[in-house]
Amino acid sequence: MFRSQGLRLHGGLVQVSFSIAALALAARPAACLAQDRAGNPTYAPANTLGIAGAYSWDSSHILIGLAERRQLVNIGVSYSRRLTWNRFVNWQYDGELLPVALESDPLTLSVNQQTSPTSGTYVDGGEAPMVTCAPFVNNYSYPGNGTTYSGTDVFTCSGRQWTMGEAISPAGMKWNFLPLRKTQPFLDGHGGYMYSTRPIPVDGAGSFNFTFDFGAGVEFYRAQARSIRVEYRYHHISNKDTALANPGIDNGLLQVTYCFRLGRR
Asked: Per residue in 9-35, pLDDT tens?
């Protein structure tokens, strides 16, 4: 009923995800010395492990998702492996595992104002999530047992439910610029999937969803072996029309990752 457009990218991401991961792990990185030829320290570790936390306080129709007012909380780890680098850019494989992936949907509040055969107002809250929270008004009138029932139903959002899930993004790349400096701007992108304990973002959608994201940020090196990444991502979730409903979720995600080097290089 609700369809996100242009989601063919998901299938390709999933098909190549494990291939990219395998190639990245097997690739022999270019030599990276503790100092460059001029004797300056470099900040491009061969292998990096990160502990990540991310939060999004809202969702909207940024690109292709339709579901509104969805929140996300992600907690997990990341792994980066240097593929090749020079003094201008450090190109890395970057994968993420998120054992905690929480998604929150606004619940529906319905108010029925009946005018016939009697007048009255009936309120029902905590119903299934709506796609959007714009008020929806339904005027009704129908006969039943010799009586005409008429009135107005108004549907809005009130309350919230959280759904537990887990996610993995095995297909990912990251580009750090100016790797000889302690402060490095970077770009990254990932593709993977998310599994939740119930359908999201509406009841007719699926519990298994595909994900992709891309973003930009800054990595601050405290030393050659430790850094902190701060970034902002566009993050999308949808089931690629594998369920009855597929409104999709677009979030702006703020993520902070504490990273430390694995090994001596």
From this structure: 444 444 444 444 444 444 444 444 445
